[in-house]
Amino acid sequence: MNERSLTLVATCSRGLEQVLAEELKALGGGEVEAGRGMVRFRGGIDLLLRANLELRTAIRVLLPLAGGPAGDRQALYALAAGVAWEELVGRGQTIAVDVAGRAAAFRDGRFAALVVKDAIVDRLRARLGWRPDVNRSDADVRVHLHLGVDESSIGLDSSGEPLSHRGYRPRGGPAPLSESLAAGLLLLAGYTGEAPLCDPMCGTGTIAIEGALLATRTAPGLRRSFAMERWGWLDQRIGHRLRQELWDRRRPAPLPILASDADEAAVRATQRNAREAGVAPAVKVSRRRLRDMPDLPSGSLVVTNPPYGVRLGEQGTLDEVYLELGQALRRAAGGCSAWILAGAPVLLARLRLRPAHRFVLYNGPLECRYVRYDLHGGSPPGGRPRPGGLAEEENSWG
Ligand SMILES: C[S@@+](CC[C@H](N)C(=O)[O-])C[C@H]1O[C@@H](n2cnc3c(N)ncnc32)[C@H](O)[C@@H]1O
């Protein structure tokens, strides 16, 4: 299995496939090919670990082991039983089978997981004379089954906990933006840390913190572990070397990253999360309403995610928030680009800005628009916006 060239699969939110493909090419992935919610690539085991540590937009990275039709119980059992599990599961290790996708024969994914688990257990008992225990929450070896209409695949999940769970933000509570989607927003906006960044509705700070990780060249997975680091057959020295290389690569953020929110609890959450992520010095957090947004240096990037309504039940006031955001951008962000992720696209008209570019992205199941606005005019860094900026922008709306 320590081969140089394996076929690997990284999954992502729909809409981010091309961004993930670019990330994989930059890491040295071969034959990179984007699909729906996933990117296939080739590389060795060291690239698999690097992908877990460094990819910003991936959700998990899989090592496929077998694929083919699995239209009924027998076919799925045969597919799973054909894998050399005795080389992959060490004596005494626990297993778990996770299921994604859909197939007519397995309306209940738990039944399909049970079939694969039985095939693994039977094979290990027949070949080695022992059977692994199942541990759903903390397995040593996580098996990933993807059910498809014509073709299903079985592989190892090298990530375990989704890669979007970087470890700096508590889970649970009202669902904010996922870390991998926030990173995708920044990469789509072309952010590399070489421009000032501002999120004036920062919530728990995900965009600002992901920005700080990018700007400081910090690999997003450095503070967590991955399922593959428990694979007994893997030379764990690869991980030590790679983690050291990635720690040494970090740098201070070259330019300011501003995060603000009207809500005091959001400000505290952002400060806490930035500390946990190790990027507190790079993120300047303050409590502020949109209408009090300070003038931004020309060339800044504003990336933000206004309240959704659908998620937070604030539909009544969303109109006003978008209106206030448009006014704040026209007044304070001349010469800047603003990128807005909107869960309720109809509200974008309230900004009274002309969109320059749009993407369709998914925040979980929610279809969103991610729209760029180029604000004309421009203020000299720290100065007042030129009067022409506002007039020009209002004229160009439509
Ligand atoms: C959808 S949440 C942002 C989630 C964020 N991206 C995260 O990762 O947690 C929108 C945020 O906008 C803030 N907000 C709403 N109206 C605002 C206003 N007028 N001025 C400043 N912040 C506002 C809310 O307090 C909320 O935290």
Task: Please give a structural write-up.
31% of the residues lie in helices and 23% in strands. The chain is of the alpha/beta class and 398 residues long. The chain has 2 domains: 6-157, VC0802-like, CATH 3.30.2130; 179-248 and 255-396, 3-Layer(aba) Sandwich (Rossmann fold). The strands form 2 sheets. The protein has a 7-stranded mixed beta sheet with strand order 2-3-1-4-7-6-5. Strand 9, helix 8 and strand 10 (283-287) form a beta-alpha-beta unit. The radius of gyration is 23 Å and the shape is elongated. It starts with 5 loop residues before the first strand and ends with a helix. The model is unreliable at 311-315 and 379-398 (pLDDT under 50). It binds S-adenosylmethionine (SAM). Residues 176-177, 201, 203-204, 206-207, 261-263, 266, 289-290, 305-308, 321, 324 line the site of S-adenosylmethionine.
